[in-house]
Amino acid sequence: xxxxxxxxxxxxxxxxxxxxxxxxxxxxxxxxxxxxxxxxxxxxxxxxxxxxxxxxxxxxxxxxxxxxxxxxxxxxxxxxxxxxxxxxxxxxxxxxxxxxxxxxxxxxxxxxxxxxxxxxxxxxxxxxxxxxxxxxxxxxxxxxxxxxxxxxxxxxxxxxxxxxxxxxxxxxxxxxxxxxxxxxxxxxxxxxxxxxxxxxxxxxxxxxxxxxxxxxxxxxxxxxxxxxxxxxxxxxxxxxxxxxxxxxxxxxxxxxxxxxxxxxxxxxxxxxxxxxxxxxxxxxxxxxxxxxxxxxxxxxxxxxxxxxxxxxxxxxxxxxxxxxxxxxxxxxxxxxxxxxxxxxxxxxxxxxxxxxxxxxxxxxxxxxxxxxxxxxxxxxxxxxxxxxxxxxxxxxxxxxxxxxxxxxxxxxxxxxxxxxxxxxxxxxxxxxxxxxxxxxxxxxxxxxxxxxxxxxxxxxxxxxxxxxxxxxxxxxxxxxxxxxxxxxxxxxxxxxxxxxxxxxxxxxxxxxxxxxxxxxxxxxxxxxxxxxxxxxxxxxxxxxxxxxxxxxxxxxxxxxxxxxxxxxxxxxxxxxxxxxxxxx
Length: 584
What we know:
Blueprint: E1 41-42, E2 45-50, H1 55-67, E3 70-71, E4 74-79, H2 85-92, H3 98-102, H4 109-116, E5 121-124, H5 131-146, E6 154-158, H6 178-191, E7 198-200, H7 202-214, H8 236-251, E8 263-264, E9 272-273, H9 276-292, E10 312-317, E11 324-329, E12 338-345, E13 348-354, E14 358-361, E15 369-378, E16 390-393, E17 403-407, E18 410-414, E19 418-420, E20 422-426, E21 435-439, E22 445-447, E23 452-455, E24 459-467, E25 476-484, E26 494-495, E27 504-509, E28 522-528, E29 542-545, E30 549-559, E31 568-574
Parallel strand pairs: 1-3, 2-4, 2-5, 5-6, 6-7, 18-25
Antiparallel strand pairs: 8-9, 10-11, 11-14, 12-13, 12-15, 15-16, 17-20, 19-23, 21-24, 22-23, 24-25, 26-27, 27-29, 28-30, 30-31
């Protein structure tokens, strides 16, 4: 049976470092500031090692740390699709294997990263590894890090979640059980007396979110399967929950009152767009699970029933036709500390959080009166009463927009690929340079508030930008977008010529599979070994046949844009024939 293995987030080359936060001018969401009011929070240098489950987490958790005001943080990752940690050490440790391993992710950089850089946290994510073998290899990685530049690094074991078709974690110490991950952490701690190995409880968080979804208690999520992109990988809302849980485990703070937005430009590796109420529910559930699970190392802290003091002396400055700056005297909270500030515009809370006693407000209309108030939020979710309001009346635009153009004026994209269109205003110093983006056919191509165009299906659409400033007449510009068809990949595989009696282990290699589209790659493998055993979803399986016979081995592959190949099948006879003797 064909498996829906949508693993589009496996496009990255390894050892990547997500940089910057996408700005959101449509929602008053400024670039996050590194210092919250009254304190400085230092981030961590975190190294992730794992597989396709791991690759998105380090982007999300780093971006969330940036949004929450943690400064001086670095997250990097080495990974490969379907790679088990227990089988990875011997392969990755061979210098000659580096080039080959780069094809599936980027494993060749882990050795250099641990030798040349200092790390505060080391996150490992197993992939259905044998328990004893995984403990052994995690200890090897831990020893390698501590024997070089990271003697004080703390290791974190990252749970994987149970599959879409399962209804709960398995019992016992199977690779898909809570006890399995706790046994891994115990085994690492035992080999390193005095160390503390925490567990990132993503699996428990996904389990609770699925339970609440079934009860209809997660806004914007109708089915349990919505948390998954395919039988084993998480969807965008699932990845958001994974990143939030990893952020909590690393930084041990409640994410509720931090500026971790639900909508970020999809033109970046940490891109997502989910319902804001869904995002708030995810944060609430992740904090509840992580702060009550002893192995996470996160505690809810002492009970604080006193809200912060009310912000005072709120004043407006730098008022323009489209925005204003607000300043106020910082609040205090001796018990829990100030986490952020919320701004209310005409009584309605703005989506962004602010970390200092200053905020820049954008997207205001000219010649309009507004009122603003400020509330302080502490670290345990309590908020102050609103401040006294301040009134702002915006002037007319000093310099109107007289012309608008787009670059480029035509664009060709593959399906599921994003590219930006850039507006140019005439004159360049026009006061209000906001635009409204529209697509003539969203089924073919969509465009977000930042002008990032995403291909949805083959065809042609027109993307139009209309200037928000219509004081000099409506100004608009258009670009023609052609979405190219996505051709299916081709599945190709080979297997080692091993001989012997059953049970006989055969190594298969599907890395030669290919895709005809220039910018596409293979990121999902579905193996059927022909003996009624479970399917395998990695690139290089090792399968043991228990009986003699002829088996039909089949492979289906998936490209990064969701296209499946036709099934490729080859016959395999066990035991393999012995070659005829060479005549003298």
